[in-house]
Amino acid sequence: MEKSTLTKGFLFLCFGLFLLQSCQKDDDEVKDVAVVYDGTPYQIKTGNFEQPVISSDNKLTVQGVKLGRMLFYEKKLSANQTQSCASCHRQEHAFTDTARFSEGIRNLNGMRNAMAVFNMAWNNNEFFWDGRAHLLRHQSLLPIQDPLEMDETLPNVVNKLKGDEVYRQQFTRAFGNDEINPEKISLALEQFMNSIVSVNSKYDKYKNGTAQLDSVEERGRYLFFAEFNPGFPNLSGADCAHCHTTLNFENDKYLNNALDSDADMTDDGRMKVTNDPNDKGKFKVTSLRNIELTAPFMHDGRFKTLEEVVEHYNSGMKNSSTIDPALIYPLNSGGLQLSADDKKALIAFLKTLTDDDLMTDSEYSNPF
């Protein structure tokens, strides 16, 4: 009896040692799995758009976009680790802010309204309201260093990320090694922002033949695309498409849209970058997609509602030395002369440009 018990105990001990060794082997195998570069391409959703031209030195990869997404939501990029890029570019508002001027980590306000971040892959004429950043990668680093925004230095950002094993591994997957530097940070952020697309609004479905505009939206569509012609008031439109053309409803130009007279102009706009007086008061023409969600409007957020925006072009335009020539005719004609119903119809059409998928797509959401 005693001998049998000892034998069973010995066998149990051996079995336990075998299991321990097996588990240890499995743990070692997990630890030995190498973190390596993964260049699997990331496919941008295009909808009805043409394939965008992506810079050959920063093609999108699944791991590069993932790293950029992590960095976009990473509060370590700010000096006191309280704000990220996403703090002022929120997904539920088409990656912009609802404040007229976003507040930075020092409780200081920025100088201009935060721009929406989507369809950047089709942008080919600089970034920011005044175009001071040539490429999206250049734009990505400036808010980090701006004392009014995240107020951090790039060396500090690098050191914080280097101390995080998760980031060291993800930089390896995205770039082939765990070296972390400002250039790689900017390239990853560029990849993620280029991946954010808005191509599935009601208007897109209308273009595809899978949705219909109601009578008010259709009237608004006509007004949007038709030229201003006061000689034939029943045919005259708002001529919005002069500036908000292409499928992205913008034209990648910098224009003065008659917000201020020369005497009242307080922001030189594009002229700050080019030093050309002909660029005074000119700002980037932004996409009207998702405009229902991106209030307040204009570079300084002066208009709180779409009604105010439409009324500006209808009756509130100001003449100046650099006004866009297309606005002079309606300005000198007493405005667009839209009726109350026309203004409602135009706004109804603008709301068909809202893409609900953008606001809920998990590919763009906070990964933490």
What is the subunit organization of this protein?
single chain
- What is the 3D shape? globular
Average of per-residue pLDDT values: 93
Unreliable segments (pLDDT under 50, ≥5 consecutive)? Answer: 1-15, 25-32
- Give helix % range: 25-40%
CATH class of the largest domain: Mainly Alpha
The CATH superfamily of the largest domain is Cytochrome c-like domain
Order of helices and strands: HHHHHHHHEHEHHHH
Q: How many domains make up the 3D coordinates?
A: 2
Strand percent estimate: under 5%
The radius of gyration computed from the alpha-carbon positions, rounded to a whole number of angstroms, is 27 Å
Report the CATH topology name of the largest domain.
Answer: Cytochrome Bc1 Complex, Chain D, domain 2
Largest sheet: 2 strands, antiparallel
- CA-to-CA gap between the ends? 59 Å
Q: Any guess at the CATH architecture of the largest domain?
A: Orthogonal Bundle
Which structural class fits the helix and strand makeup?
mainly alpha
Beta strand count: 2
Total count of helical runs of at least 4 residues: 13
Widest β-sheet, arrangement of strands: 1-2
Walk me through the structure:
The chain has helices at 2-32, 62-72, 136-145, 154-162, 165-175, 182-195, 202-208, 215-225, 271-274, 306-316, 328-332, 340-351, 356-360; strands at 254-255, 283-284. The longest helix is centred in the first third of the chain and has 31 residues, at 2-32. The N and C termini lie far apart (59 Å). Helix 3 packs across helix 6. It has two domains: 62-198, Cytochrome Bc1 Complex, Chain D, domain 2; 202-352, Cytochrome c-like domain (Cytochrome Bc1 Complex, Chain D, domain 2). By secondary structure, it is mainly alpha-helical. The protein is globular. A two-stranded antiparallel ribbon has the order 1-2.
